[in-house]
Design brief:
The chain is mainly beta. It has 2 helices and 10 strands. The protein has one domain: Immunoglobulin-like (Sandwich), CATH 2.60.40. The strands form 2 sheets. Strands 1, 2, 4, 5, 7 and 8 form a 6-stranded antiparallel beta sheet that branches. The chain has a 4-stranded mixed beta sheet with strand order 3-10-9-6, with no helix packed on it. A hairpin with a 6-residue loop joins strand 4 and strand 5.
């Protein structure tokens, strides 16, 4: 009887060792792949006067997708009013696609946690234009994106340039410029009258 009991206990031990041993898997952290930089040929800025929605100015910057020609800046000049608040929205496109691919929502909504848009002023507008982001991502705490902004001019008549730069910062966005890489940068001329 002892032998029979020993066999049953031994069989139960082997069976439980197989059951519990086969369920153990090596734990492994799985992260989704980090999306690459966006291919952008065209950037448009839309200035809409906050006091008069009919007062809207569009500017366009275009880069040859082959990179063989300099950027087309013939439509990259904004003539704005002094002492005015504009709602500025930034739009991104890939014009190598048919129809043209609008990347604005992909960058500013779907991948908002990966991007920031920066403005760098030069020339006579420095100190006379204030740009404040009004859009935020879903990070905790939320960080600004910069594709929707208040663009405020003061009482000075002046001209200068603003360089816009889209930073691609997957898994590193922290509200500063440094992490990541540049998806695109472009320069617009701003005249304030």
């Amino acid at each position: 009887m002892n032998t029979k009991l020993n066999r049953m206990l031994f069989s139960a031990f082997i069976l439980s060792a197989l059951l519990f041993g086969s369920c153990k898997k090596k734990e492994q952290a799985v992260s989704p792949p980090v999306p690459g930089n966006e291919f952008i040929t065209t950037i448009k800025w839309r200035f809409q006067n906050a006091a008069n929605a009919n007062d809207t100015v569009w500017v366009r910057w275009y880069q040859d997708p082959n990179g063989t020609a300099p950027p087309d800046t013939s439509q990259a000049v904004a003539n704005l009013k002094k002492n005015t608040t504009y709602k500025l929205t930034v739009h991104f496109y890939d014009e190598t696609k048919t129809p043209i691919l609008d990347l604005t929502n992909e960058i500013g909504v779907d991948r908002a946690n990966y991007h920031t848009y920066w403005f760098f002023q030069t020339g006579g507008i420095v100190g006379h234009v204030t740009i404040t982001a009004t859009d935020h991502d879903t990070n905790n705490p939320p960080l600004w994106i910069g594709m929707q902004d208040n663009f405020v001019t003061d009482t000075a008549t002046c001209s200068g340039r603003i360089e816009g730069r889209l930073r691609h910062q997957p898994n590193s966005k922290n509200g500063t410029y440094a992490p990541g890489s540049t998806d695109n940068d472009e320069t617009f001329t701003i005249n304030i009258h």
